Input
Amino acid sequence: MRPNDSSAPLCQCYTSYMANRTVFRDDTSHPAMTEITLPDELADRIESRVERTDFENTNDYATFVLSEVVTRVERDADSEGRESAREGVEARLESLGYLEE
Amino acid sequence: MVTADCLRADHCGFCNPSSSLTPTVDHLAEEGLTFTQAIAPGPRTPSSVPVFFTGEFMANDENDWMDDWQQRQARIRRHMERFTHLSESLQHNGYETATFTANPWTTRESSFDIGFDHFNEVSADSPDLDSAYLSDSTLFTLTDSGIKSLPGDPGGWSSKKEWFSQWPGYVELIEDRIESLSEPFFLWIFILDSHQPYITPRQYREESSAWEMYYSILRYWHGKVNDEELSDRAAELTSQAYRDAVRSVDAFVETLETAVEPYDPITMLFADHGEALGEHGNFGHKRTLYEENLRVPLVVHNADTVDTVDEQLPLRSLPEMAVDLTTDDFDPQAYTQQAVISQTEANRTKSVRTPQWKLISEGEKCRLFNLQNDPEETTNVAEMNPEITDRLVDILTSHTATQKEKADVGDAATDLLAATTEL
Output
């Protein structure tokens, strides 16, 4: 998959033409997956981090990172106005026993 | 998708054949798919719902801010803004999405509206509906009309309108919304009817008189405020009031099934967490990780699968499972796990549960229970089973490392966004 490949919907930020490793593999058990590739060096670094955690493999780790970043970028444009808290919420929480610890 | 706050698994007939409180739910279970060992990610709404709605545990936070409700709400908001919501995934797949949610931790301020085309907060001060819809009870109508000094108002009913959150008050709004939705649609209804205090409409009460029901509430709150144990009589009245509340939940499911019948939908029913009724000296849902707090009912109806899954299912798998239900890739066994982790709000107490064992860890202190021999979790057998204890501790240690890694990724994303904004 090349950077300008229009069939790459998930991540086109960086791919290498050489020494790439498949991260997402088309698989009959995961038909909604899309294949992208990463440089071996980056994949190795991810693998070393995976070993310290419950992530099952490089795919899961990369999916987590990309999902969080993309979600945060999407959220960033729509996050205004959520900081305020209505006073009524406190009364609701109190009446349901959530504030009496 | 229906979430019944505080609905215990053992009060549903399909999980406990000696219970006859939920005939409608049991009928759905008989025709559908049931999980008899569904485990909540936390024992209370703030430690459970953000997790099962995103599939991710909340970040560790060692700061002691549990006394400040706004910081607790902000923590939920940060979590909900980090991760993709179940509603978003379905919206992305072409579903029109709507919710009616009555729990005050699941509001716009905590960013639960993300991914919903129609967001309806059910509360006395809701911007979405008139408070008159909260309940159709006479007492609520009186309090809602502004009468502050009701005769016999020792509990201060007028300041506790949320106590009366009852589905019959707003069910017509749900029915109207269903009629307005375009298929395919995703509807999430989060009801409080089985949340304490257990105030149940007369038509669904089979055990408690109105006097007994309100008396049990006053005794419960009196005991809570004064740190007094409930008498046996008060405890029984509380338990019977809870059973009536469960009957009301079942009646809601029956009403909803009728309303959605023309659309032939898949129905998912579960609880966000359980409820203590005297076990371990507790009532309600405190920050404890015992079976009464964590084990929840889960039914999937009309998914072309009739089965009973007895393997452990973490409720945290819900987003993945719900999305798969809309495709041809649904495999009931795919979401089960041999070791299921739960944790309290702020992650101070954690547990890992296997079919036979549960380890509860709080700081340096670990307790191990044999769920097969001691299902009520009364005897700590950690010292007698050091190898099992060590193995389960290792699982929690790995989980903690994973959460730390995810938090680091989150921090990096925050820095990246900040740098991008500055550019």
Q: What stands out?
A: The first strand of chain B starts at residue 2 and ends at 4. Chain B has a mean pLDDT of 91. Residues 386-422 of chain B form the longest helix (37 residues).
